[in-house]
Amino acid sequence: MQSTRRNLPQLLGDARRWFEEGLLAALEADGATPVSPTQVQLFAVLDDQGTTVSELARRMGVTRQTAHQAVHGLVAAGLLEQVPHPASARQRLIRRTQEGEHAHRRAGLILERLEEQLAGRIGQDRVDALRTTLEARWGQPPIPGAE
After folding, report:
1. Per-residue pLDDT tens over the stretch 108-126
2. C-alpha closest to that of 82 among 73, 91, 95
3. Which of 17, 24, 92, 99 holds its CA 20 to 30 A away from the CA of 143?
4. Which of these CATH numbers, 1.10.10.10, 3.30.70.790, 1.10.1740.10, 3.20.20.70, describes 15-135?
């Protein structure tokens, strides 16, 4: 008989989607520029001083093409801009525009409210324990057969 117990990566994915859906719904209700979950993820991994598309793709765990498409949509929406990379004539840095900074701050406030709502549903002690667990150093993933 197969177990119906869901594995941890599935549960973590559901938790991430809960926050993404809440964030997207709140942004839409505020009349913000519509963005996709991939674009939300890109915003979350973008450095304040700017980040290359290749680095964004690595941090997001997506192809460079997927990251580039997300960047292109956010540039077209006026939330990101491309600027020359100071150390490389071949690369460009992606960074937030003034409007993008405003959207990023607004998203941060929405995520804080969502976390407060989660604490109201499951308890602050559980939210604190979850945060502590996720902030712990896990080390590198184990390599099968290398033990």
Report:
1. 999 999 999 999 999 999 9
2. 95
3. 17
4. 1.10.10.10
CB-based contact 10:97 (threshold 8 Å): no
CA–CA gap between residue 44 and residue 104 (Å, rounded): 8
Domain extents in the chain: 15-135
Confidence of residue 146 (pLDDT cuts 50, 70, 90): low
Q: What is the DSSP string of 43-86?
A: HHH--TT-B-HHHHHHHHTS-HHHHHHHHHHHHHTTSEEEEEET
Whats the size of the chain, residue-wise? Answer: 147
d(CA 144, CA 40): 33
Neighbours of 63 (CB within 10 A): 10
Token pair listed for 17? 């989607």
24: pLDDT strictly greater than 90 = yes
